[in-house]
Automatic annotation (TrEMBL):
The chain crosses the membrane at residues 20-53, 211-230. This is CDP-alcohol phosphatidyltransferase family protein. Belongs to the CDP-alcohol phosphatidyltransferase class-I family. The keyword Membrane applies. It holds the Pfam family CDP-OH_P_transf. Keywords: Membrane, Transferase, Transmembrane, Transmembrane helix. Gene3D superfamilies: 1.20.120.1760. InterPro entries: CDP-OH_P_trans (IPR000462), CDP-OH_PTrfase_TM_dom (IPR043130), CDP_ALCOHOL_P_TRANSF_CS (IPR048254).
Length: 263
């Protein structure tokens, strides 16, 4: 049995290595197609190595029996995000071809709706898969916000940084780590961010319209995060009040116990 588990672990690790290899292949294709510069190459390679290292560590910690079909879809999407990241890094020197940039990003966004369905259809939903999917989404939004900020201004970076700011705040205020109830509105707002940023990044709209699209993206995201933070705060206060009442009741009971014994 131990040998079988070791063999399966090796297969899982091999899949992450294949993902890194595909990332390098995509970078080579992009480099050949557009003559990508050193910034794009280095950023794309750094993304590939970081993805492989973090995912391998997470798999080693959770020890799944198999990588799973849904994670393969997410890994493929991460490969596309790595390509988009390389193009954005390269854009500081030369603007990437719009068709190529929009195509890679659009496919990555479309696949965002596929991995979850595959996980549910195959019964392979796992906390690791959900976290992997969320991190790929968040990083793509960050990369797109960086690209759009070059034409619209640094305020656009708030869209990409908001989720990471929330994670950082949760390390200080533990009540932000409490689980949130399911929300279709939250999912819709999250999905809209990629779509609206891609529309803004495409350059098909005039400046004023692009500004409006990005403003809508930021406004809906602030509303979604604000609503969730308010819910977490109220829940935290309610839990504190409940604990306080319980402690008060226990204190009263302890005070009354000697009186009952004396009588």
């Amino acid at each position: 049995m131990a040998l079988n588990n070791t063999y399966e672990a090796r297969l899982v690790q091999q899949e992450t290595a294949v993902g890194a290899g595909l990332q390098i292949l995509l970078l080579a294709l992009l480099g050949t197609a557009i003559g990508m510069g050193p910034a794009g190459w280095l950023t794309g390679l750094a993304f590939a190595v970081a993805t492989w290292a973090v995912l391998s560590r997470a798999l080693h910690r959770t020890r799944p029996r198999s990588f799973g079909p849904a994670n393969r879809v997410t890994l493929g999407r991460a490969t596309l995000v790595g390509g988009v990241t390389a193009l954005v890094a390269d854009s500081f020197q030369d603007s990437p071809p719009v068709t190529l940039f929009v195509g890679l990003t659009a496919v990555a966004l479309i696949l965002d709706g596929v991995d979850g369905k595959v996980a549910r259809a195959t019964g392979t939903s796992t906390p690791l898969g959900a976290r992997f999917d969320m991190e790929v989404d968040a990083f793509l939004i960050l990369v797109l916000s960086v690209y759009v900020s070059m034409s619209q201004g640094p305020w656009v970076l708030l869209i990409g940084a908001m989720r990471y700011g929330f994670v950082a705040a949760a390390r200080v205020w533990n009540w932000l780590n409490a689980p949130l109830p399911p929300s279709m509105a939250r999912k819709t707002v999250a999905a809209l961010q990629g779509i609206l940023l891609l529309v803004a990044a495409s350059g098909y709209l005039p400046y004023s319209a692009t500004f409006g699209v990005v403003a809508v993206a930021l406004g809906t995201l602030v509303w979604s995060f604000g609503r969730d933070i308010l819910w977490l705060w109220r829940t935290h206060r309610a839990d504190q009040a409940a604990v306080g009442e319980l402690l008060e009741l226990e204190f009263v009971a302890v005070e009354r116990e000697p009186e009952a014994v004396a009588s």
